[in-house]
Amino acid sequence: MNKSEIIKIMAEENFLSADEAATVVNTFFDSIRQALLAERRVEIRGLGSFKIKEYAGYAGRNPKTGEVVSVAPKKLPFFRAGKELKEFVNS
What we know:
By secondary structure, this protein is an alpha+beta fold.
């Protein structure tokens, strides 16, 4: 399922125009993005939580040449499924 499919379902099930549904879905996703940019945790009960994980830099290797390459520190979004979602998937 992708974003446009979510918008279509939102519009159909809630008797909204496609533009209204797109606004709702985009606002929802933008709110999550903004919270993560502010390094806040986002928890959606019954689904899971999003947070930013920080990874330190390290010395890696180019697999083709074996040359040592410096990998910069980075931050990545991380999603952890909630208990209810895990139970639903495994039922």
